[in-house]
Amino acid sequence: MEAHTPNPIEIQVETTYVEEQSRPEQDRYVFAYTITIINQGSLAAKLLSRHWVITDANSKVQEVRGEGVVGEQPHLQPGESYTYTSAAMLETPVGCMQGSYQMVADDGTHFDAPIPVFNLSTPNILH
User: Fold this and answer.
1) Among 17, 61, 94, 104, which is least packed by CB within 10 angstroms?
2) Do 47 and 37 touch, CB atoms closer than 8 A?
3) Does 2 reside within a domain?
């Protein structure tokens, strides 16, 4: 079995406030997030499932679990990346997300790739 780092996956995140889908007067704030998953390990790995923890400014927490991302379970060779865009809806103009992807390397090793916390905020909110 080839040696590899326990977490060879890098996660990059970009967020955007989706004003045209948001309804602030109804406490509905929609945010798009674009995730890039980069396999920095020495083995190929497949993304099996996701777990998100989404928290708004009122400390309301939503947990989301499911297979794959946007209907896919990307299999990333060493050095490959996969990018997708999804969205989250909050009841407040600011919040945050974090979570993990459950992965399996080609040698059968299962591991979690943590997704660091990132902020969601409307443009008029100071960071």
Assistant:
1) 61
2) yes
3) no
**Cα dihedral across residues 7, 105, 13, 49: positive or negative:** negative
CATH code for the domain of 96: 2.60.40.1470
Enter the pTM of the model. Answer: 0.89
Q: Which of 6-15, 62-71, 85-94, 112-121 has the weakest average pLDDT?
A: 6-15
Its domain, for residue 19, covers 9-117
Return the residue matching tokens 């905020």. 121
Q: Categorize the per-residue pLDDT at 125 as very low, low, confident or very high, splitting at 50, 70 and 90.
A: low
Structure tokens at 44: 């190929």
Q: What is the spatial distance between Cα 98 and Cα 78, in angstroms, rounded to a whole number? A: 24
- Residue 99: inside a domain: yes
